[in-house]
């Protein structure tokens, strides 16, 4: 039953329980470990073993900072990132970033759908393309016809599938002391392949679609909860909501990076240890595990690919739709019926269908995945700069402008990503 009581004054209610506090941050973090990300982490672990684990630790606070800031912009202003960019920055900057986001997301959708279909084929055999189409249609039905309040519960439960990668680790022998030492004191290499892999991990972990999605989901949460208003206009609601955002994001990104750590660890302990160092897709990683780690590890890895794909597809398509809706002032909400937000849902369908279609062309999915990472990396830098500018803009944030440690770490994340992009182009 809904209540008008302020959640901050009722610590024992379900609304204020730690489970209920998990939402946009948890889903955003889990969606970061999509099949494309799994492929990147698998390749990193296979190629460089335990010496790449340090990147997961380093990206964690940087990822938390930029996602907390994105979420705060949505909750404080009551608008997503695209709407705020449109209102306060030049049109060419808005169109450029949104186009980059659309292209990268669509290619990412194509790669994820192909990986999901291939994973089903690995587990039960049969026609890969039929599975790919079926999974795309299932994702669209859930996004378009299931109201947000119900659908978000589905997404929360889907995050549990990521524990499959924790399970994989416990099916093989792990030298834990070596792992701990090499994570903190890795054997760094300055060759092109190693640097490129480090850049790929950063680009996979900190991606523009995650910024857009979490900011927009905070707006959805604002609309879904009775009596809640944008913090800019209701400062009294600030303390409890900003604490929730911080808790949700630290847990969500921690969950994301923990799973990424276990994926790298699993492939390092199995594939790298057996001199299998060239893994280019998530399904290829699952296949390679089978003769080394056994049938159970193979099944866990494959099921994880399917589940994370179902989790990531709505984030990829949805963030594209939110960006377009904010750009052109369309009605937008996953809570609205399709007939009330036709153009918003149309972008979700179009992005998914185009992504699905790319899987039936002669386009090399590995190259598509690579260029998606390149576009995401390039797009992330100006978008992060804009996010940081918006978070410090009193016209957008009112009295909730970011400061102190959050601002420092946010800018540090931006500088690190800029350095990663420069490094990426140096080794292209």
Describe the structure.
- The model is unreliable at 1-16 (pLDDT under 50).
- Helices cover 74% and strands 0% of the residues.
- Helix 3 (35-48) crosses helix 14 (282-293).
- The chain has one domain: Up-down Bundle (Amino acid/polyamine transporter I), CATH 1.20.1740.
- The longest helix is centred in the first third of the chain and has 34 residues, at 91-124.
- The N and C termini lie far apart (56 Å).
- It is mainly α.
- Keywords: Membrane, Symport, Transmembrane, Transmembrane helix, Transport.
- Its main location: membrane.
- One of its GO terms (biological process) is iron ion transmembrane transport.
Write a brief structural summary.
By secondary structure, this protein is an all-alpha fold. Helices cover 74% and strands 0% of the residues. Keywords: Membrane, Symport, Transmembrane, Transmembrane helix, Transport.
Shape: globular
H/E element order: HHHHHHHHHHHHHHHHHHH
Number of strands: 0
Question: Class in CATH?
Answer: Mainly Alpha
Unreliable stretches (pLDDT < 50, length at least 5) are 1-16
What is the CATH topology classification name? Amino acid/polyamine transporter I
State the CATH architecture: Up-down Bundle
Number of helices: 19
**Straight-line N-to-C gap:** 56 Å
The CATH superfamily bears the name Amino acid/polyamine transporter I
Helix percent band: over 70%
What's the gyration radius in Å?
21 Å
Membrane topology: Multi-pass membrane protein
Subcellular location: Membrane
InterPro entries: NRAMP_fam
GO cellular component, one term: plasma membrane
